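Would you kindly consider the sequence and fold I have copied below?
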Amino acid sequence: MSDNHEGSCLCGAVSFKTRGALRGVVYCHCSQCRKQSGHFYAATNVPNANIVVDGAENITWYAASSFAKRGFCNTCGSLLFWKPGDQDYVSVMAGLFDRPTELQGECHIFVADKGDYYSIDDGLPRFEKSTPSIPVAE
């Protein structure tokens, strides 16, 4: 399988190409991710140097906190990116990638904030907040 991947938003106004291995998918159940997506985030990470975005003028960035901003397509509304201000990577929503991705779930974070209408029963590690390897807003 190639370490090169492509993806886009629903309408195609924003597309991207990545190179290099992708991190496993982290499922974030925090209240911000739930409110923005209507459920929870499923995202992988890409170093800034390993992603090329076409149509960046169609991305609206929302500063959800002093720690990170969230990018979405200003044409179709697709959730795209989560970008911490002082880190050299961007989280990319896993569902944006064209298949095959060979992505696999890694863990669930902020499970204490998860919605009360679903259960987490996939056997992946769960964290009340986050893990030391995944920097998040406090």
User: Anything to note?
Assistant: Residues 7 and 23 are 16 Å apart (CA to CA).
